[in-house]
Design brief:
With about 270 residues, the chain is an alpha/beta fold. It has eleven helices and nine strands.
Length: about 270
């Protein structure tokens, strides 16, 4: 799906989703969220999609919720949705973050400029974050009297620890790319003019890798991050190791190792 507020392009197994409201730093409009809610689950089950890259058009990644739109809707006449209806609608939209986190393929946030609020949450939901030197980050929620959504309260403490996550939520301070790298929020920083090429090279590397193994690597790591017991994680590792040992990719890699050459993976 290509909505005017969400652009989708696919090339050699890498699907790039571009949040496309550059005039508002890609603030999350209802149209954009509807497009993400349709597109991300579809890509999770699309066998042709090997890697998902999420990015923003223009000079920013995503400024989070559309606060101007919220204000205009608050002033609108007519019956307002109930609290239950609002919470249900929000929770449905938040599935985008869960699926980015859980889909059986690598997800990468490619980021320049600001990432704030729910925009930061979407980036944190991805497996990895590659950012330009201009990237900067803020939880932002407290600045507009919100508590946080789209999973940042789940993902951020796992990356930076509970105490630092509370500080970043309470203060809503803006942190620069270097500090985000030091804290473990981002994986790597590249020059602004090399962001697309560096991210694409990394995504291509993953798309050409053992994609079945990636599926089970992600299962193992997510189970551990979710607090599964050591015994449960070991059981999962044993099963998934046995499962991946039956793949054509494992057999090809073992053969290539013996023959001292680079393996050619088929994703089977």
């Amino acid at each position: 799906m290509s909505d005017k507020h969400l652009l989708e392009s696919a090339d050699n197994g890498v699907v790039t989703l571009t949040m496309n409201r550059p005039e508002s730093l890609n603030a999350l409009s209802p149209s954009m969220m509807a497009a993400l809610t349709e597109t991300v689950p579809r890509l999770a089950t699309d066998a042709e999609c090997k890697v998902v890259v999420l990015t923003g058009a223009g000079r920013g990644f995503c400024a989070g919720g559309d606060v101007k739109g919220m204000a205009s809707r608050a002033d609108a006449t007519g019956p307002a949705p109930s609290m239950e209806e609002r919470a249900h609608g929000l929770r449905e939209g938040m599935e985008v973050s869960r699926i980015l986190h859980e889909m059986p393929k690598p997800t990468i946030a490619m980021m320049r400029g600001p990432a704030a609020g729910a925009g930061l949450s979407l980036a944190l939901a991805c497996d990895m974050r590659i950012v330009s030197e201009s990237a900067r980050f803020t939880t932002a929620f407290a600045k507009v009297g919100f508590s946080g959504d789209y999973g940042s309260s789940y993902f951020l403490p796992q990356l930076v620890g509970a105490a630092k996550a509370k500080e970043l939520f309470f203060t809503a301070d803006v942190i620069e790319a270097d500090e985000a790298l030091r804290l473990g929020i981002v994986n790597r920083i590249v020059a602004d003019d090399q962001l697309e090429s560096e991210t694409r090279a990394f995504a291509d590397q993953l798309a050409g890798g053992p994609t079945v193994a990636y599926r089970y690597i992600k299962k193992n790591l997510n189970a551990a991050l979710a607090g599964s017991s050591i015994g449960d994680v070991f059981d999962l590792e044993a099963w998934n190791m046995t499962r991946t040992g039956q793949t054509d990719d494992h057999k090809e890699a073992a053969k290539a190792f013996v023959e001292k050459r680079k393996p050619t993976f088929s994703g089977r």
